[in-house]
């Protein structure tokens, strides 16, 4: 069982993006559209691979969003990423861990880029110990949907992709996993993900 972190074990940052755009009178979905444009080599991709620092990310994101119709500073987007843990997903993960190997592949940012996250990092740490193996993009310089990151996880867990279930909230990140033979679940809510996990594993997760 392989999980994404943000938007799967936590609520989606997309809600925070929408709120921010409404409050600032920005075009709808400007942040998501900036993230999606040239998604393998844009500011976001470079930051998640730790190829640029926060100041460069701030400038690049501003340039990219401006090209799409409105300037948004990269620094202003970072605090919007902190979703809330979904307790029902954490409970499901605990039950799955008792029966199966577990892994987490997360596209994340270099340490300390969102400012003080002491409280958050404590509860994130409590969840991270539930995984047999964790791969963080900013630590290895690779990010989803690069197929190599999924291969690294399969090798670390010593499992056959055909016996794996992979959960992510972004379709673009599910595709490489599916092509390797994994069963994939696109997460839209905790309840939906748990229902599909129960179907895939045969476990009672609530």
Automatic annotation (TrEMBL):
<dbReference type="InterPro" id="IPR052898">
    <property type="entry name" value="ACAD10-like"/>
</dbReference>
<protein>
    <submittedName>
        <fullName>HAD-IA family hydrolase</fullName>
    </submittedName>
</protein>
<dbReference type="GO" id="GO:0016787">
    <property type="term" value="F:hydrolase activity"/>
</dbReference>
<dbReference type="InterPro" id="IPR023214">
    <property type="entry name" value="HAD_sf"/>
</dbReference>
<dbReference type="Pfam" id="PF00702">
    <property type="entry name" value="Hydrolase"/>
</dbReference>
<dbReference type="InterPro" id="IPR036412">
    <property type="entry name" value="HAD-like_sf"/>
</dbReference>
<keyword id="KW-0007">Acetylation</keyword>
<keyword id="KW-0378">Hydrolase</keyword>
<dbReference type="InterPro" id="IPR011945">
    <property type="entry name" value="HAD-SF_ppase_IA/epoxid_hydro_N"/>
</dbReference>
<dbReference type="InterPro" id="IPR006439">
    <property type="entry name" value="HAD-SF_hydro_IA"/>
</dbReference>
<dbReference type="InterPro" id="IPR023198">
    <property type="entry name" value="PGP-like_dom2"/>
</dbReference>
């Amino acid at each position: 069982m392989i999980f994404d972190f943000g938007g799967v074990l936590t609520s989606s940052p997309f809600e925070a993006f929408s709120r921010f755009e409404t409050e600032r009178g920005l075009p709808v979905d400007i942040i998501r559209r900036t993230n999606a444009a040239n998604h393998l080599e844009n500011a976001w991709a470079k930051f998640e691979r730790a190829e640029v620092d926060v100041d460069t990310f701030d400038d690049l994101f501003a340039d990219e969003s401006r090209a799409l119709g409105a300037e948004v500073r990269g620094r202003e987007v970072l605090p919007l990423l902190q979703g809330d843990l979904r307790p029902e997903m954490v409970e499901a993960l605990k039950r799955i861990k008792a029966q199966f190997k577990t892994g987490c592949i997360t596209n994340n940012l270099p340490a300390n880029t969102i400012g003080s996250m002491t409280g958050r990092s404590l509860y994130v740490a409590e969840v991270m110990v539930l995984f047999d193996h964790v791969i963080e993009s900013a630590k290895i310089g690779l990010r989803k949907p690069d197929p190599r990151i999924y291969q690294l996880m399969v090798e670390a867990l010593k499992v056959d992709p055909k016996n794996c279930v992979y959960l992510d909230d972004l379709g673009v990140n599910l595709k490489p996993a599916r092509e390797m033979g994994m069963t994939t679940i696109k997460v839209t809510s905790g309840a939906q993900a748990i229902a599909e996990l129960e179907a895939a594993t045969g476990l009672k997760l609530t």
